[in-house]
Amino acid sequence: MSLVVDAVAHRYDGDFVLEDVSLQIAPGSTVAITGPSGSGKTTLLSIIGGLLDPTRGTVTIDGRPVKALSLSTTFSWVFQTTNLLLRRSVRDNVALGRLQYGDRRAMADTAAVVALGAVGLKDQVDRPAYSLSGGEAQRVGIARAVASGAPWILADEPTGQLDRRTSDETADLLIDARRSDQGVVIATHDLAMARRCDLRLRIENGRVTEDR
Amino acid sequence: MWRVGELATEGVRNLHANLTRSFASLLFVAVAIGGLMYAEQRVADDLTRFTNTVTADGGQVVVVSTPGPSLSTSACNRIGAFGGVVATGAVLDRGATPLRTAGGALVSDTRFSAGAVSVIDPTYRGQLDGGYLAGPRAAERFTLVPGTVAVLGDQRPAAVVGMLDEGTRIERYETALLAAGRFEAGHQCLIEMTPGNLDAGRQIAAASFVGAEGIEIRTLLAQSAFERDVVTELDARPMRWMWLIVAFMIAASLAVQMFLRRGERAVYVAHGAGRADLAIVEAFESLPLILVGAAIGITWATAVAAITGITPHVGFGLRLSVAAVGAAIAAIAAISLMLYPRRALADQLKGR
Questions:
Q1: Is B330 left (phi over 0), alpha (psi -120 to 50) or beta?
Q2: A192 CA to chain B: closest CA distance, Å?
Q3: Which residues pair with B300 in a beta bridge?
Q4: Distance from CA of B277 to the nearest CA of A (A)
Q5: Model pLDDT for residues B257-289, shown as the tens digit of each residue
Q6: Nearest-CA neighbor of A177 among A212, A147, A200, A133?
Q7: H-helix or E-strand containing B318?
């Protein structure tokens, strides 16, 4: 499921924040999008994920426009501020990734426990999400994205609020998602994380360049 | 595609996940519904007691009237011989006891107060208007005996023509002076029946005045029946609108919670929940609070009513509770559908 961004442009308040962005991402690969604050990283990620309509251009997966796809089953998101149901258990949060496919609770819970095991939280499945540290919460978010089995994981500044050590652990987990054939697109300031990705793109003045 | 059962489970688990919030919402619904239910029961009890008093114990009077003074007083008096008849009396318009809302009724609400009744010299030989039937306590208080000439309020003097039979009337008539007539023909014949015999009284009246011109037969229950209008009171009670307000407040409080938790809703949307899916989650979060809260409220309101001596009128408040709860649920459903967060999903997810 190759992801193709073709001549995408986007305008905010009359000014173009993205101009003529084109790129192709192979399935199962990891891509880092870097650039200064306000350069349009999140905008590009939102357009890729179908949350924002571009002013011009198209985003397709295997030739089909993303808007025609089921967004929630095609993309799984990891945000800087983890989007967890804070009062619910860690397991319940991760199970959401499977329940959306119509899985029964028992199956979703099993998948959640497996995914949590992969991020080192197997013993924390019953903890309420509000009691997690920032790093733990981010790992739960990643576990949920991995458990969902969505072909693409889109991560927006996933390490923005984490210390160095936790950032590295988070990067490990995201990049490990390749093992389950999930493509990962990460918008980040974290150059160490970006360096570990298969492809590094830099946005500056609305244009994307490959950062080698 | 979410399974409906799992969406329901999500709602219930969200409910359990924040017990403080759920308990506060439950308490709010219980207090609001229960408070109104209790107030309704007080009103219902008061009106029912009043209605029961009027229909079961009240003096019951058949009034036969004609446009002119053409009713035979002797025919009127003869009715007194029928079974179920307590007393009869004919009155002229000018001599009728002036009752505030039921002019000419035999039943008077006159109570003792300084200057209300004056007893004048029994040797009075001036013009007399009709006469009075005196209740036992009235007679004792004012030393009234048949033949005593008395003045009721600002009316013209009239003689006491008889004593009310205490045993056949309710207690409040003991303190009354009832107007009666002593003339050949009157405008009205008042027939006081024993409680529950109004229909028989109507039939007797109709049979006794066959052929009288312009005759009209109506029934009066008691003076108090004219002082209070049950239907109007019921319609005018403030709780009538409070139910609507309570339904709105319940819906609004839950809607505010929904709005404050829009980030959580966005998480569901990000995981494939559609508008209807979210509505199901919300329904299973809101319905238990509303239904259980209402049940608790109704239960305590009924219990408190019973403890405080109010006869529970559950059905009355229950119907209104169900209506209010239904309105709240409908409003919640509509709000839930309207608050679907897709448009601002990215912002909501990022902004959490």
A1: alpha
A2: 23
A3: none
A4: 10
A5: 888 888 888 888 888 888 888 889 988 988 888
A6: A147
A7: helix B314-338
Q: Are B181 and B159 in contact (CB under 8 A)?
A: no
In eight-state DSSP terms, residue B89 is E
Contact A88 B14 (CB under 8 A): yes
Please say whether the beta carbons of B223 and B60 come within 8 A: no
CA-to-CA dists, residue B105 to A205, B112, B177, angstroms: 97, 19, 12
| pTM (2 d.p.) | 0.65
Q: Where are the beta strands (DSSP E) in A157-198?
A: 183-187
Per DSSP, B222 falls in state -
Q: Is B271 helix (H, G, I), strand (E, B) or coil?
A: coil
Q: What ipTM does the predicted assembly reach?
A: 0.83
Give the minimum alpha-carbon distance from A69 to chain B in angstroms, rounded to a whole number.
12
3-state secondary structure (DSSP) of residue A150: coil
**Cα–Cα distance between B44 and B185 in angstroms, integer?**
44
Superfamily of domain A3-210 in CATH is P-loop containing nucleotide triphosphate hydrolases (3.40.50.300)
Rounded Cα gap, residues A83 and A77, in angstroms: 9
Under an 8 A CB cutoff, do B268 and A96 touch? yes
Question: Pick from B267, B347, B351: which is nearest to A81 by CA?
Answer: B351
Pick the residue from chain A with its C-alpha nearest to B5. A104
How far is residue A210's CA from residue A33's CA, in Å, rounded to a whole number? 9
